[in-house]
Structures are given as structure tokens and as C-alpha cells.
Design goal:
By secondary structure, the chain is of the alpha+beta class. It contains ten helices and 18 strands. A five-stranded antiparallel β-sheet has the order 11-12-13-14-15, covered by helices on one side. A hairpin with a 3-residue loop joins strand 7 and strand 8. Helix 3 runs parallel beside helix 9.
């Protein structure tokens, strides 16, 4: 006899999420503006290339000018906008606190002899299912995700599902925050039902190679070190090329630096806008704009004015870039010694799994790709914190090659 019950929770935007939505949208608009201005300056001034659609450049110029004009008239408003848009982790707050967890369904599973009954109550109704135990093909674990506008798709946890052949379908039984927690529940249920336990939606190296032409190409981030008694896969800054490191660093801090440098343009270029457009818009009386055409005066148009607020913005930008780069390229190590495969990373307990129990290495894509060492008899080892699908594809190939050499 099997008695299984669980409560599955979903995600719904709450009051804080509604409050943060316009700020997140505004930040993404400013980020798009920064990127458009950067491309406009690079293509038109450096590459001397006329854009295919000049309206995009004109729109970016007008929006940029409007920001400069607003900041030059309001003083500290520009700094406050910069602090709100870039220094506060609004997307993190929205993903963690901006969504509640209402009950999605309550599940109860019962069986007597060769029959199994599933009861699922949802806010919109209920589900009743009665099948033969022989019709159950597997217990599945699948990564759950949810669309969180404007954040996009975000991981929600790990679902435990019951796969039935007749009538064909997959039925949600439980949801756990971690893969290990979902595995614990699914393993007990699969053992009671006498069916295999599988990870749904995963790819192995052969499937990834078959879809490689238009897919991600591997990077050289993980280094293989072969010793007399062990083989190690090491992910560290030594394996990251200068171009990769700079790209990661620039992506983390470019928008904060954009706001910091914008201060100088607000003071100089914004003053020019007030002098030129102010009388027409009724913002100021006609004045005379004094331009310093000497070399120090011309340099002052491009060099930032190191006010206290701007210095804080620059420090915050470099700090955000450094922290983001460290998170993206934090060291990890997979070592195979004797019959044990071990995962080590700073600040977390090491995980190990006997080699004979490893079924295979699998890749789960999505917003946060993971490489999983799967086992039906022990909780799997999850390698996360990867920079993207390209690095995940590289790790999967090198890990499977290491396992093949050892097991062969």
C-alpha cells in the first residue's frame, strides 16, 4: 500500500512585484539606450559607417539629450535615478520577494493491490485518476520554471511527476526547492512502485553533438589535469582568456559606468541644451554660452568631474563588475580518485559519488544551465554556477570523456 500526499506551490506577483515592475522596465530602457548610444558612437565616429536605419540613431540621440537636459535642470535628480536604477538589486528583489507562493494544487496518491488512485485539488477544480499500476512507466524529475514579467523565465524548483502510459500523460505530484530534495521524494516513490527514476529534459554529450551546428560552441574554461592517482577537471581564472574575462567584467559594470560618465555630459552638454532650447521651451532666459576653446577647456568636455557622488558610482560600478566576474568565474573542481568522483567549490561542502553508481552525465539547459551526474541510487551531483550553455557544453564533453576513460 502506498500513501503519498504533497502541496505544490506556484508563483504569483505580489504588491512589491507590482511596485518594482516599472523600475525594472525603466532600468532596461536606460540600458537599451546606453547600448544604442554606444553602437551609434562606435559605428558613426570610429568605423565611419552609416547605420541601416538612421531613425534609431536619431531616437537614441534625442533620448540621451533629454536625460542630459533633465539632469542639468534638476541637479540631484539624475543621481537619484542612477542610484535607484543601478545600485539597488531590483531584479534580485523582484525574483526573490516580488512573487508570492500560493497553493497550486494539493495531491494525494493511494494504491490498493494493482490499482492506483490520484486525487489533485486545484483552485479551479479537481482531478481524479484511477489506473493500473502496470500502466505507470516511470517517476520523472523535471526542472520547473515560470514566466515572471518583466524578468522573463525563472527557475521555480524541481517537479516530481508520474508518467502513465494508459491513459497517456504526466501528472504533477510534488515540487521541491532543490534537485536533491526532489530526488529523495521521487526515489522512495519509484522504489515503492517498482518503476525507473528518470531526469526529464536532459541531454547527454551524443545528443548535444548532434544538435551542435547551430548550437553553442565550447569554450576553454575547464582544464584537465591527469595525475598518477587522480584526474581533475579544474575551473579557475587561469583557464579564462583575457577576452572572456574583460567581456564578463564589462557586462557587469558597463551600465553603472555609463551613469557615472553621464555626469560630465549632464554638466557640459546639458548646459548647451539649456542654452539652445531653453528659451524656446520657456525654461530659461536667453543667455550667452561661453566655450573655452583651449586644450584644458576641450579636455574638460570629455574628462569626468570627480564629484563625490560620481566617485561613488564609479566605485560601485567596479565593485559590481568584480563581484559579478567572481560569481561567473568562481573556481570549481571535479576530481576522480579511485572509485570516487568529488565536486569541490569554495564556501560549500564537497559532494562525492561512487563511480559505479553514476548512470551518466547530463545537461539541463535554460536560464541557469547545469551539468548533472545522475544516479538512481544516490542523490546526484549538480554542477551549477556556469556562465552559460557554451561552458556547460564544454564541461559535459570533457566530463564524459573522463568517465569513459575511467570506466573503459
Amino acid at each position: 500500500m502506498i500513501a503519498f500526499s504533497a502541496t505544490v506551490r506556484g508563483a504569483r506577483r505580489n504588491g512589491l512585484g507590482l511596485l518594482l515592475t516599472p523600475l525594472v522596465l525603466l532600468r532596461r530602457s536606460v540600458q537599451g539606450l546606453a547600448l544604442a548610444v554606444e553602437r551609434m558612437i562606435w559605428r558613426e565616429l570610429i568605423e565611419d559607417e552609416v547605420p541601416a536605419n538612421p531613425l534609431i540613431s536619431l531616437l537614441a540621440f534625442l533620448l540621451f539629450s533629454g536625460l542630459c537636459l533633465l539632469a542639468s535642470l534638476q541637479g540631484a535628480v539624475g543621481y537619484v535615478i542612477g542610484l535607484l536604477l543601478f545600485l539597488l538589486p531590483m531584479e534580485w528583489l523582484m525574483a526573490r520577494l516580488g512573487y508570492g507562493a500560493p497553493v497550486q494544487r494539493r495531491v494525494e496518491l493511494q494504491s490498493w493491490g494493482g490499482r492506483l488512485r490520484l486525487f489533485a485539488d486545484t483552485p479551479g477544480g479537481g482531478e481524479r485518476l484511477e489506473v493500473d499500476r502496470a500502466a505507470i512507466t516511470a517517476v520523472l524529475i523535471r526542472q520547473a520554471s515560470v514566466q515572471m514579467p518583466p524578468l522573463g523565465e525563472r527557475p521555480l524548483g524541481w517537479d516530481v511527476l508520474l508518467a502513465v502510459a494508459d491513459p497517456a500523460g504526466e501528472h504533477l505530484l510534488a515540487r521541491a526547492a532543490s534537485l536533491s530534495g526532489a530526488w529523495q521524494e521521487a526515489h522512495v516513490l519509484a522504489a515503492d512502485l517498482g518503476v525507473p527514476l528518470r531526469l526529464a529534459g536532459a541531454l547527454d554529450a551524443s545528443q548535444l553533438a548532434g544538435s551542435r551546428p547551430g548550437g553553442p560552441q565550447p569554450d576553454d574554461v575547464w582544464m584537465v589535469e591527469t595525475g598518477a592517482t587522480s584526474t581533475r577537471l579544474i575551473r579557475s581564472r587561469r583557464g579564462v582568456g583575457a577576452a572572456q574575462w574583460w567581456r564578463s567584467f564589462a557586462e557587469q559594470g558597463s551600465y553603472l559606468l555609463f551613469v557615472a560618465v553621464l555626469n560630465t555630459v549632464m554638466v557640459n552638454y546639458g548646459g548647451f541644451l539649456v542654452w539652445m532650447f531653453g528659451p524656446r521651451l520657456g525654461l530659461s532666459e536667453p543667455t550667452t554660452l561661453v566655450l573655452d576653446l583651449s586644450l584644458p577647456g576641450l579636455l574638460s568636455l570629455a574628462l569626468p568631474e570627480w564629484t563625490v557622488v560620481q566617485a561613488l558610482l564609479v566605485v560601485a560600478a567596479l565593485g559590481a563588475a568584480g563581484v559579478g566576474s567572481y560569481r561567473q568565474w568562481c573556481p570549481q573542481e571535479l576530481s576522480l580518485t579511485g572509485d570516487q568522483l568529488r565536486l569541490r567549490r569554495p564556501g560549500q561542502p564537497s559532494r562525492q559519488l561512487p563511480l559505479r553508481l553514476i548512470t551518466g552525465a547530463l545537461l539541463l539547459g535554460g536560464p541557469e544551465p547545469r551539468v548533472i551526474l545522475w544516479s538512481e541510487r544516490r542523490p546526484p551531483i549538480v554542477v551549477d554556477g556556469l556562465s552559460g550553455e557554451r561552458e556547460a557544453a564544454e564541461l559535459l564533453e570533457k566530463l564524459e570523456a573522463m568517465l569513459d576513460r575511467t570506466q573503459g
